[in-house]
Specification:
- This protein has 9 helices and 8 strands.
- By secondary structure, it is α/β, with parallel strands linked by helices.
- It has a single domain, classed as NAD(P)-binding Rossmann-like Domain (Rossmann fold, 3-Layer(aba) Sandwich), CATH 3.40.50.720.
- Strand 7 and strand 8 form a beta hairpin.
- Helix 1 runs parallel beside helix 2 and helix 3 runs parallel beside helix 4.
- The protein is globular and about 50 Å long.
- 48% of the residues are buried.
Amino acid sequence: MKTILITGSTDGIGRLVAIKIAKEGHEVYLHGRNPQKLANVVSEIKEETKNENIKGFVADFSDLDVVKQMTHQIKGATSKIDVLINNAGVYNSSKSQNDDGLDMRLVVNYLAPFTLTNELIPRLKKGEKTRIVNLSSAAQSPIDYEVLAGKEMRSESETYAQSKLALTMWSFYLAKKEPSINVIAVNPGSLLNTNMVKEAFGKHWSSADKGANILYDLAVSEDYKGDSGKYFDNDRGTFAEAHPDAYNETKINKLITTTAKILAN
């Protein structure tokens, strides 16, 4: 039995992949922002899958202190994590910046999973054949450090694309830094039928199951056990090249150094 943490798992592809994994009897840790919604989803999944090993953890990913608090709760609940799926993400938001003045998309889509994962590395290292699946996107845009630091603003689409490239660059960095952990970045599919996509674009191209199925495979299938440090493009159904910046050591190192400085403030 694996212990599997899925962020952003109260709806969309996060919820669908949680159900698939729970049906196999694994211990599943769900995460959501809304305590009531999370509690409802935990009981719904327990009932649907006949698996009682489902726990919920609450955190608003726009607040990095709250993200850290959640990691302390997770550490208290388990001695190891075998799979982490960094699925939580935002495109449209009622507020463009969080309370620290950082762009919502860059915080939720990049800085929060960065913080969460680094806090949980000791537990992940104790996992068996540990995997981290980071949700990237076909939209990847070069990082503007004034925007990352909250000194300048850009449109939702631009900061979303920057956040997804940052996540991909960090994925490749982490794959090298932690050779015992299999780290894969994935575009789960463009315009999947999820609430986030509906709110942002008002249309979809594919079912949410398409995204959930690839997340499931990357998380547990033996087919991907030797693919750390790669980018899977589910629009094409294969591993592909990410944005060129994701392979540039100088740019990656600048991102990691700058991220550490932002998080230290």
